[in-house]
Amino acid sequence: MRPNDPPMSWRKFCRVTDPYSIALDGYVSGRPRRQKSGPRINFNHHEGVDHLATRATCTQVYAAIRDGFFTTLFHDENNEPKANVYALDCDEDISTSYTVLKHGHEDEFIGNPKLIQIVFVEDLHDTVPSIHPFPNDLLLFQQLAWIFEPYRHFRISGEIDKRDPDAYKGIVDDVEKRILKHISGRGKSIPLNMDYKKIGGGQGWAMIQEVGAQAGMGVFADGYHAYISARQRPDGRWVYAMHKKSFFHFPIPKFCKTMNKIEKLRIDRWGGRNNRGGSAIVKGSGVPPDELMCAVNEELNQNQ
Fold this sequence. Notes:
Shape: globular
Distance between the termini: 43 Å
Number of domains: 2
Number of helices: 12
Low-confidence stretches: none
Mean pLDDT: 93
Order of helices and strands: HEEEHHEHHHHHHEEHEEHEEH
Structural class: alpha/beta
Radius of gyration: 19 Å
C-alpha cells in the first residue's frame, strides 16, 4: 500500500518491481496490460480506455481468476498462487479487488453468488456512476453500504488525507472482513445517507461537499447531470472528484488538462476519463472551489 506514490508508467512498473507483481486501479497509469515473461499485470479502468467497454478493476480481477490467472501465470513452483499486489488507494474497487485476489483460489469463495453480486454492482457503479437513483431502502444497497462503511467514514472524516499506508491497509483489511461476513450470511445492513451541501455549480451540474457516505447518489437523484465534490485537507489544499452522466456535455478530460496547465503539474496530475476524474492523487490541488467553478463554467460556455 503506497498512497504517497504518484501513479507510474507501465514501463517503470516493469522495471522496478519483482516478477509476479500486480498493479491495481491507478497504481500504474494507463490501460490494462500484462507481461507474460514477468509475469506482471496492470488491472485498471481509468486512463486510455472506453469506459463503457472496460470493466471495473474488481471485475477484471474476478474474470482473470475465473479464466485461469493463478493456474497459468501467477503461481509458484508448487502451483500455489503467488502475487505482489500494489495499490495507492483503499476505495471500494481496490478493497474488493484485493479480497478477490487473496481468496480467489478458494472455490467456495470465487463461486459464491453473493460475491458475484458485489463484483457486478461495483462494476456497474464504477462504469456508470449515474445508475442511481434506486430506492434508498433497497436491501442490497444497504448491505453494500455496510460493507464499504470503513472506507466511506475514512474518506469523509478526512483521515484519508493523512495518507498513512498502515491506515489505508487497515481499511482494506476491514472491508475484506465485511465481504467475507456478507457472503457467509453474517453481514449487516445500514441506511443510506445521501446528504450533501451544495456550494456552487452551473447549468446542469453542482459543486458539493459530501455529508453522507452516498452523497453522489443524492446529487443524481436531485436531477443534476454532473457534480464536483470538494474536500479541504488539513494542509489547506483541496481534493476534487468529478462525476457525470456519460452523455452530458461536461468534458472531464478537458477540465483536467486545463487544471494541469494552471497548476503546472507534470507527474502527479489531474486525471480521469470521460465520466469521472479528479485532482492530483498525492498533491491534491491548490485551486480553491470558487476558482475551479469559474474555470469549469468558462470552459462550458466556450463550447456551447
